[in-house]
Amino acid sequence: MNKFSFDLAATDGRARTGTIHTPRGEIRTPAFMPVGTAATVKAMLPGSVRETGADILLGNTYHLMLRPTAERIAALGGLHKFMNWDRPILTDSGGFQVMSLSDLRKLTEEGVTFKSHIDGSKHTLSPERSMEIQELLGSDIVMCFDECPALPADRDRIGRSMELSMRWAARSRAAFGDRPGYALFGIQQGGLEEDLRGQSAEALREIGFEGYAVGGLAVGEGQEAMFGCLDYAPEQLPADKPRYLMGVGKPDDIVGAVARGIDMMDCVLPSRSGRTGQVFTRHGVLNIKNARHQNDPRPLDEDCTCPACRGYSRAYLHHVFRAQEMISSMLLTWHNLHYYQQLMSGMREAIAAGTFEAWQADFHAARAQRDIDPL
Amino acid sequence: MNKFSFDLAATDGRARTGTIHTPRGEIRTPAFMPVGTAATVKAMLPGSVRETGADILLGNTYHLMLRPTAERIAALGGLHKFMNWDRPILTDSGGFQVMSLSDLRKLTEEGVTFKSHIDGSKHTLSPERSMEIQELLGSDIVMCFDECPALPADRDRIGRSMELSMRWAARSRAAFGDRPGYALFGIQQGGLEEDLRGQSAEALREIGFEGYAVGGLAVGEGQEAMFGCLDYAPEQLPADKPRYLMGVGKPDDIVGAVARGIDMMDCVLPSRSGRTGQVFTRHGVLNIKNARHQNDPRPLDEDCTCPACRGYSRAYLHHVFRAQEMISSMLLTWHNLHYYQQLMSGMREAIAAGTFEAWQADFHAARAQRDIDPL
Prior knowledge:
By secondary structure, the first copy, chain A, is of the alpha/beta class. Chain A is 42% helix and 19% strand.
């Protein structure tokens, strides 16, 4: 199998499970993609990320183009070799982070000029340059260059932005060219407006992509509004291609998105939370810096098989967090990524078995119990 | 084998190789002990420390008594269980770090009172309290509580300090009591004065210990003065017990100490250097933050089998160091600890084979080549 394809194996309600085939390996869906911003999933070795069950990582075009630069990574053999991860990588287009991180942006029909948040140097991103960078990186799944307005925004602004993104999607497709084994994903925009989402989906279908993302969500609209949009947006996109919800999310966001027909997600939350002491378990969220854990000999989760839970007490994890030791970030990030991947594999099994509704009820019931009582 | 013992297997000149047997496992000598100050070898998981070849870790009484406290660690099952390291642990007595880190110290015949550098709380250390803390931690090799004057110091000050340390050594021995399977090591003092070192060794022999440390070196006297002292100090100590040189050192310090009859060493250098970008290879020292590595596809050392050298280019390691990513500390610490343990195993083999002089010539010749040329 040397080309990019998607097999849908089973559906349960609107939820789907299947496999994305790529020359670098299979991606089991629904899939959660850990974020490796600067060519590393923070506080993790790539082999450990794989051990958590990840089939694919996400890399950030914006960060990598600034440092160490896409040209340097290409000269060193591409991002996979550079960061020692031989499985699939998806890269974003850089557009979202230009808007959230850089200084002195100027947006035109052509693209965006901006100054680096690292050293103030001036750069340009356009559909053509974004495609070039993502090819230099060697990304397996390339994202169209788009514009993503923050919500709330008025309908007129959202409509004009969506139309610009659709013109950029066509330019991205043209610039990407014919690259067997690699995929280009279109990104649906249109905010929370069902008709604009529909127009965007139609425009993307006409261009034709190997996969489709629901963009412009998880930008401050809240879970209820996001789920409202996901009640129609995924089904506006082709059923025979992967559907990717960008930048989502918390565990219950992810479960709700999968229930609404999403196949792929990414989020910094499990890794970032690992560095701030926030821990995800089937009983919800706990914060390891809380004094209640100081003398607690129990693991984060008795049933978890990650190295943090197999080898260490809450008391130890509390101690190393307080002492600002790196092992705190290393173990908590590992645990959180493991938890997220367990969540995905549980959903995949339940969807395949046709028991996803019962699985969701169990998921919510376990969270409602909240963390175990202090000793 | 359920008791503490030392088998000397071979000597080559003054250099020795052998095995320390403990209920928690064997320690191959000459041994290098990575430092796990606050119940973690910084930036490493314990399993990874073991993979580098370490048979034993060092823990710091001063840090652990302040946070999370020895009593808390004891209640949680001891330091081994707390930090997930089931092999031998040596703890220092706390005396050295009280002098170097704490505030408002007051030294009397009884012991030392001081304020914590973390929160200003007041604490006392004495021979009896140090023994109690090290027992609470569950340390396999306990160090006598001593006083270590900074060098240079005048002979009179060094003599009085040594005599105090010898009285404290007797009190440490009495407080330690009879604990089969655990060892108490005496610490020779006396600065750079051969006769004072001899008197100290005599006093320690009379008390009787399971091992003997050469203390009071690597405190600013320089390598030449240290080697001068090591030309006589180890041989003043019993030949049938392990000899431990505290807080040493750079690779060439370690080789010179082994050549002078030292069996055990510890130092923060490989782990601390890993966090500051300083890398040890058989060709000496390199600094990964140097721009010459920015485009270099080669590993730190072509012949090294550590994960940093097997999976990553100098260019990658340069990038993640510059980007302040944790993986930089993780990989460089692993490499440095691996290098140190390879150094020890090379010396053990050479001493056993009676080829240590040739081994030393090779060691110095490889370092004289310095790092590989830039591309």
